[in-house]
Amino acid sequence: MDKKAVFNLAIIAIAGSFGGLLAGYEMGIISGAQLFITEEWNLSAKTLGYLVSIVMVGCFIGAFINGFFADKIGRKKILGFIGIIYLIGCLCCANASNINILICARIINGIACGMANAIVPMYLSEISPKKTRGFFASLYQLSFTIGILASYLVGFIFSSSGNWRSMFLSGAFPAIILLIMYVFLSESPRWLILKGREDEAKKIFEKIEAPELVDSQIEEIKSSMKTDNSDKKVSIQKWMYMPLFIAIGIMFAQICTGINVIICYAPKIFQSAGFDDPSAAMQITIIIGIVNFLMTFVAMYLSDRVGRKPLLLSGAAIMGLSMFILALSFIAGDSLGNMQKWLAVASVIGFICSFAYSLGPVAWILVSEIFPLEAKGVLMTFPVAANFIFNIIINAQYPVMTQAFGTGATFAFFGIICIISIFFILFMVPETKGISLEKIEENWKNGTKPTDF
Q1: pLDDT band at 225 (very low <50, low <70, confident <90, very high)
Q2: pLDDT tier at 226, thresholds 50, 70, 90
Q3: Rounded to an integer, what distance in angstroms lies between the CA atom of residue 153 and that of residue 352?
Q4: Is the Cα dihedral 99, 103, 109, 110 positive or negative?
């Protein structure tokens, strides 16, 4: 691939991945804001769970909106809508006069995040060459971790004043940047071919592919689908059930192992472990955000070299070990003394490191690869919606679980989920490294077992 193609592809990918940055910011900003909202409005554990998790209700709605429109109006327009909706949500959050209005405003932001979670990995996988698809698809998770880190930094900046409204308002800036960068986006060439707009697709491929590969790429895509049926109603066929089951399963493994509890409740976890001052808890949280960001580069480097399954398996194993150590730090807290808080920090860092190179980015890469092109917009709705349902349950119940069973037992539960995930990945997840999207579809149609890809 020549330098011009690499440059064009990079610009398009960076612009597209900004949707992931918004989703990451929204996920992380509540971790700092909740400390001061809880104090200002005297929230119960149950109400706090609603406040943190309610964004996932919006995400669920956004995922279904994306599923309806992505195959009808294209990938690019959805990204523009994401910027507009998130901008409105941030303004509403910053001006909320009571907890009910804030909860409703968080739903608006959630709609934008749900659309981003569904469309950005799909868009990035469709514009990238197969040899570097893992790298470019990882940009979603990278931008997501940048958004989380930015939210932690913003939370720390305003923690001394307790100004949670400014924390939410700051999210308007990346939304505005996304709207500005919209002009650099190109439509997905695969979607254009699906709609019979081959000339437009060819012009885009000429920007991002080596010239000698453009025609063969278009022919490969055309041969994998019937373009004259592109405007007909998409039906889910029997052979699509297996990739759909795997996609939902991998979302279960990604979320129910406890990642968003760490992301959304990190300052509160560190306060419980012994960091009493909110600013000190936020400082440790920033370290977690930095680790999360840096380790994503490891995934970007390894996903197209090592493969998807080795990263997923090793990551899930280390995540499980880290969760059990974190559980021990709370169960044996009295005997550990001052060591408790540092053992908690070390185990959370271990968990974040392993998640950030494995289930974080690789799960989204895998899900974006295993669905057939003609039904991808509809099928992506299900794992993304499942992701948010799992998030709603876990985030809403975490404060209640810790109150009822204790923090240590709650993290031990997440460790058990990690072990279950290892067996699921080992026996149900296919290796997709270096395989074209069209070949993956052919394997499903032929009834190839996931372990035989």
Answers
A1: low
A2: low
A3: 17
A4: positive
What pLDDT digit, counting tens, does each position of 265-274 carry? 999 899 888 8
* Topology given in CATH for the domain delimited by 3-452: Growth Hormone; Chain: A; (1.20.1250)
**For 258, left (φ over 0), alpha (ψ -120 to 50), or beta?**
left
At residue 452, the pLDDT reads: 86
Residue-level pLDDT at 234: 60
Residue-level pLDDT at 227: 43
Give the pLDDT score at 233. 57
Cβ 308 vs Cβ 366: under 8 Å: yes
Give me the pLDDT at residue 165, please. Answer: 97
This prediction has a pTM of: 0.78
Structure-token pair, residue 330: 């709370």
Domain layout of the chain by residue ranges: 3-452
